[in-house]
Amino acid sequence: MTSSAHEPGAALRLHVPEPKARPGEVPDFSGMSVPPAGTLARPPIDADEPALREYPYALIRVLDDAQRAVGPWAPALTPERLRAGLRHMMLTRAFDDRMLRVQRQGKTSFYMKSTGEEAVAVAQAYALDDGDMLFPSYRQQGLLIARDWPLVDLMCQIFSNPGDRLKGRQLPVMYSVPEKNFFSISGNLGTQFPQAVGWAMASAIKGDTRIAASWVGDGTTAEGDVHYALTFAAVYQAPVLLNVVNNQWAISSFQGFAGGERTTFAARAIGYGVPGLRVDGNDFLAVYAVTQWAAERARRNYGPTLIELVTYRAAAHSTSDDPSAYRPQDEAARWPLGDPVERLKQHLIGLGAWSEAQHEALARELEEHVKAQLREAEALGTLGTPPAGVESLFEDVFKDMPPHLQRQLAELKGA
Amino acid sequence: MASMNMIQAINSALDVTMGRDPDIVVFGEDVGYFGGVFRCTAGLQKKYGKTRVFDTPIAEGGIVGTAIGMGAYGLRPVIEIQFADYIYPAFDQLVSEAARLRYRSGGGFHAPLTVRAPCGGGIFGGQTHSQSPEAIFTHVCGLKTVMPSTPYDAKGLLIAAIEDDDPVIFLEPKRIYNGPFDGHHERPLTPWAKHPAGEVPEDYYRIELGQASIVRPGAQLTVLAYGTMVHVCLAAAEEAGVDAEVIDLRSLVPLDLDTIARSVQKTGRCVIAHEASRTGGFGAELMAQVQEACFWHLEAPIERVTGWDTPYPHAFEWTYFPGPARVAKAMKNVVEA
């Protein structure tokens, strides 16, 4: 751009964001600042928002380049707990890999992987209490896996088979598990964010001790619902964690199209007077520590926190997507924050609490576990096996079936 | 002429109009570099540049709101809502703003925008990728609502919609993007290349909004349909062995009541089909208008074949979808009544 663009009377120009690299080009993360781990202070949980203004622009990291836990944010997690976290992340990945294959085999219509983002869901589930209510988007399957929900139940939903608790009504991966305080996933973007705030407000109205957490992607922050959520959370100081999973890509649109070119997503919090924390989303320990801080703050009636989890969507958006059409194929491999499974693995090895051999054995064990669960689910049928009688098509539209639906059901059965 | 599927025809409409009118801008989620999740805008950014074809934040209300502002400036925005199911965050901007801007400003401002949105089921999209929300928009005064059923019509109608000075909701039945799906999901899809309406002129032409098309002349009954259901009704007429006059409405608002009334006055019988759910669906409006215009000519009650009054299901997609068997049954009922 020539300087004449800025002179008085200059012709106006529209800025349209452009990612640094497209297919066939070399991935370029040079504009991304990756500060050393362990340098940021861990503020007290009752700190006022104005005292926390550096955090939305920083990046909280615990694991250093050698994957050692350093600095005041390093959480006190036992090796046993860390191994459990590693296991849940690896199980999430094994599940995703297998379900992609199942979709490619034509056994279901659709699937969405969370590859590369496993630390977000698993570490956050670990830092929350089991009674806390989760309002996820469609890429936090790790929450349910970390809460030890059986894979076979998820698979039955993916197959819309007779074991599907949602009666074949929902697109695959749009789970709903009240038993695990996991809210029904919508396919529409961001709708869950204000709902989580409402749940948290209700918990406060009733003098409960449970808090809520919700997740949206970087792209979804553009939706109005996200701003409703932040406004209500701020106004009522709701006990809620509002998480923005910045995985860099919203289908084909890089995060610059959500407003990430000139500021961070965590910085949105400042305008609402809400603390914003920005964390290395591929660092299991940092994600855990930040979530724990925000959860503790909410539990002690100090209000909501916005957390930006910086990660990378290593897989396609969904099985309907082909990222090679809009981003360099090796971009995931060049992602500066590495892979969450590999980093926690190296951390545990560094602690002397894990080994390559154990890791390989666990990977094999989990793969077998997933296969066994899959056999169980497939025994109940894959997509095309009716999940129930046709009357279930008309059930749950309302609590009680009104006459017009009864007539339509009779018409269908008589057809 | 060229062989085009509906995606290519829509792309051609955008290309032709953008080439003629520098005030046309195209934007929406993933429409720029990637060319849209259904590829309708493929190649346009490269040809017309990033300030005329661009990606947007995921904010449908923002997309429509900014389009209204651009229209106020004097541009002619053609925006894409990725799935019709995602249009609801834009509802206020469409209903309270775009639809009424001309009226409330006494003609001082208007909103010459075209809102493209893929609609309809049949792709195992579940309740968030399958809806047909046309009746929600036909109820709004100040909006035009269009739904093509072939590539030829899609191009001509889209050009007319883009050139229209009022806001047009242009719904694209995604199940017929690649071929004239007739409801027989168990059979391979015939591609548009084998259909006469897959032959599309490469240059400019318009199909005026508000003109229905008689796609199958017949004497025994009149069938009113639009979008995917046109092809389902054609198949159903063959299967039922009924000499049906199938009318493709193409434009719901404005509606070509003259063509409809002439046909029903001739046949005395009418079946209405749409994929959207029944209660308050556009079929209800059609029934009312046919009754008003043709009561003394009717020889049988009008029947509707529609989706059930439930959200669009995943597993029971084909139980929900008003396929040829249900349409054929209604045709026989009405003919034999």
Q: What is the CA-based Rg of chain B, rounded?
A: 19 Å
Give start-end ranges of low-pLDDT stretches of chain A.
Answer: none
Termini distance of chain A? 67 Å
Which percent range fits the helix content of chain B? 25-40%
Furnish the topology, listing elements before pairings.
The complex is a heterodimer of chains A (415) and B (337).
Chain A: H1 79-104, H2 118-127, E1 133-135, H3 141-146, H4 151-159, H5 192-205, E2 212-217, H6 224-236, E3 240-246, E4 249-250, E5 253-254, E6 276-280, H7 284-299, E7 305-310, H8 340-350, H9 356-379, H10 403-414
Parallel strand pairs in A: 1-2, 2-3, 3-7, 6-7
Antiparallel strand pairs in A: 4-5
Helix pairs in contact in A: 1-2, 1-8, 1-9, 2-7, 4-9, 5-6
Chain B: E1 2-3, H1 6-20, E2 24-28, H2 44-48, E3 53-55, H3 60-73, E4 76-80, H4 91-98, H5 101-104, E5 114-119, H6 134-138, E6 144-146, H7 151-163, E7 168-173, E8 199-200, E9 213-216, E10 221-225, H8 228-240, E11 244-248, E12 251-253, H9 257-267, E13 270-277, H10 282-294, E14 303-307, H11 317-320, H12 324-336
Parallel strand pairs in B: 2-3, 2-4, 4-5, 5-7, 6-7, 10-11, 10-13, 13-14
Antiparallel strand pairs in B: 1-8, 6-12, 9-11
Helix pairs in contact in B: 1-7, 3-4, 8-12, 9-10
